[in-house]
Every structure is written in structure tokens, then in C-alpha cells.
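Exercise 7b. C-alpha cells:
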């Protein structure tokens, strides 16, 4: 392990995940698997991608050690479980219960495509799950099949209903619009979300596909999204100081009181307020979604590293965070890992 001294930003207390730009990471995104039961066109090719070997995936015991370290010693207050598709992890419910039993208890969230959620939502809530994000890009069965290469729209919609019935609040819906595929559905998705009582957020497509075929000029921008949504009613932005570190800009839909979110990660980046750090399914710390470097906690942990050593390595990894994702920089390169292997 490195013997370089731990570096944190000036004025930040020791034992927090701070970088040189004054940001402190309190939101831990934990990928439980790189596997997924969909093949969304903006994420991976039809044949999928090579999965991580099973012996490289963190066990529940290893996950709990690292998450517990983050919560008890490094200032993590929110833990979001992601994938791939986290519902594919058969031991998800006991893992949620174990994380929920940590002291101090973190806010516990899940990001999922919703397939299989109808059968597990109640158990997850009973285990301690607080919040949920469900990916849904279309309400049209044929478009869903085109986008995901699977005929599973009824399962996703059943998962949305089950999440609401289990008492999860808010239930957030994450939607990516693709030009010429589903971008015309934005108003219908908004009307549906208002009727269902779920929180809809549109996300600009980001350069995180396994094929590395993302093109900025093909992306549906936040401005275009808002133009389409204005068909439902005029959009009034919430006060910017109410946003905090939240990635979504929220807009009140005129005459309804409903708030729709737009996450403009590409055209209006919010890196300056970022409070996130990521742990991949194979135990790598990533200080940015677009980082091209990682810090390997798994190897250190399996080699017998102490909690002090793991904490110091984690602190160093976050301290090296760049000021922004750099998508607009001419030298920008996509990370080698796709979104499915990084976690949302």
C-alpha cells in the first residue's frame, strides 16, 4: 500500500472524505453487481459485455466492512445501492437490513430498473430501505423493447406500483431521452408521473456506454427537454439555493404544483457541489463517475489491511478528485468502464 501522507482540503477535519476544492463526500454509491437483465442501447451492446469474475465481486461481509467504515469513520450519511441491476443480487434484502443496522444509520436508497421489484419492495422496506429510483424511459411497449432489447415494460410498471404501495416516498423515476427514439414521449411521461404521484427526472445521456459511441450532438439537451415538457404547462424554476448538492434542477409545472427534475450533467454540470464517492462491485473507489483512475480497496482488504489503512487509502483517493468531469475538454476520454460496471 502507498505510504504517501494523507491529504485533505484546508480546514477540513481529519477523517472526512474531502478534496482539494472544498467538497466533502457524504453520499456513497455502492455497485452490488455489474450484471443486468436489460441491454439498453445507451449502456451496452445487444450481446452484453464480459461480466466480472465471481471471485472479484465483494462479499456481503466485505461490503459491510467498507460501508461501515465509511459510515462510522468517514462521514458517509447516505448509501445508495446500484448496479448493474442490484435486484439480481439474491442476498439484497439481508444486506439492506445489515446496512440499516449500522450506527449511525445512513439514509438507504436503491437505484433499479424495477424488474422483480414487485415481489421484493415490501421486504426491502421492512429491511430498512428509505428511498428508491427506478429507471423508465418509455411507456410504449414496442419502444421499451427497442431501447432495452427485452419485453419487460409490464414488470417495470408493476415495480413502480409496488414501491408506492410499500410506502417508499419519494419514488423517483429516472428517464433518458434518445433523439428520434423516445424524445417525443416527454410530455406523456410527465402526465403519467403526475397521475401516478411519482417524482420524474430527465437525465441527459452521458458518455458512459460500453460501445463508446456517444456523440454530444446526438444528445437531447436539457433545453430541448424543457421545451418538450412546456407542452404540459409553463415551467418555473425553483430557487437555486434550495438545490444544495442535488443533481436535478427542479421546475414547477404551471397550475399543478408538481415538480419535475432535469439533470443536465453534460450541458450544465454541477461538479462544484458534488458530494458523491463510488465503490464498485469489485471493490474499487472512484471519486468521480468519469474518473479514469481507481483505488483498489479489495486487494488491500484481502491482503489484511487494517481499518486505519483502508480509511487512509480511501481519504487519499477522494483527495485527488479533479474539479470537474471534463466532458467539454478536447482531451476528454470516456472511462474504460461503462455505467453498468461503475454504478449510478
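Sequence design result:
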Amino acid at each position: 500500500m502507498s505510504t504517501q501522507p494523507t491529504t485533505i482540503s484546508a480546514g477540513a477535519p481529519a477523517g472526512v472524505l474531502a478534496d482539494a476544492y472544498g467538497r466533502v463526500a457524504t453520499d456513497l454509491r455502492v455497485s452490488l453487481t455489474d450484471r443486468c437483465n436489460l441491454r439498453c442501447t445507451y449502456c451496452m451492446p445487444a450481446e452484453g459485455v464480459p461480466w466480472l469474475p465471481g471471485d472479484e465481486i465483494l462479499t456481503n461481509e466485505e461490503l459491510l466492512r467498507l460501508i461501515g467504515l465509511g459510515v462510522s469513520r468517514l462521514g458517509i450519511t447516505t448509501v445508495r445501492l446500484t448496479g448493474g441491476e442490484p435486484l439480481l443480487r439474491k442476498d439484497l434484502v439481508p444486506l439492506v437490513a445489515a446496512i440499516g443496522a449500522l450506527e449511525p444509520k445512513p439514509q438507504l436508497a436503491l437505484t433499479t430498473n424495477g424488474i422483480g421489484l414487485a415481489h421484493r419492495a415490501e421486504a426491502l422496506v421492512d429491511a430498512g430501505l428509505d428511498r428508491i429510483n427506478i429507471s423508465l424511459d418509455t411507456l410504449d411497449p414496442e419502444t421499451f423493447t427497442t431501447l432495452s432489447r427485452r419485453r419487460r415494460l409490464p414488470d417495470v410498471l408493476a415495480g413502480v406500483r409496488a414501491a408506492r404501495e410499500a410506502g417508499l416516498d419519494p419514488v423517483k423515476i429516472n428517464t433518458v431521452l434518445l433523439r428520434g427514439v423516445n424524445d417525443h414521449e416527454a410530455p406523456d411521461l410527465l402526465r403519467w408521473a403526475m397521475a401516478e404521484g411519482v417524482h420524474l427526472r430527465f437525465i441527459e445521456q452521458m458518455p458512459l456506454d460500453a460501445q463508446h459511441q456517444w456523440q454530444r450532438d446526438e444528445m437531447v439537451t436539457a433545453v430541448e427537454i424543457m421545451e418538450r415538457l412546456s407542452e404540459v404547462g409553463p415551467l418555473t424554476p425553483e430557487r437555486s439555493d434550495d438545490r444544495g448538492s442535488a443533481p436535478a434542477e427542479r421546475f414547477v409545472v404551471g397550475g399543478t404544483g408538481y415538480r419535475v427534475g432535469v439533470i443536465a450533467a453534460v450541458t450544465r454540470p454541477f461538479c462544484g457541489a458534488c458530494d458523491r464517492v463510488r465503490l464498485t462491485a469489485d471493490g474499487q473507489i472512484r471519486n468521480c463517475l468519469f474518473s479514469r483512475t481507481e483505488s483498489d480497496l479489495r486487494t488491500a482488504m484481502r491482503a489484511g489491511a487494517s481499518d486505519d489503512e483502508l480509511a487512509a487509502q480511501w481519504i487519499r483517493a477522494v483527495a485527488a478528485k479533479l474539479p470537474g468531469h471534463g466532458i467539454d475538454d478536447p482531451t476528454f476520454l470516456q472511462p474504460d468502464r461503462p455505467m453498468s460496471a461503475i454504478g449510478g
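Instructor comment: The chain has a mean pLDDT of 90. The chain has one domain: 17-342.
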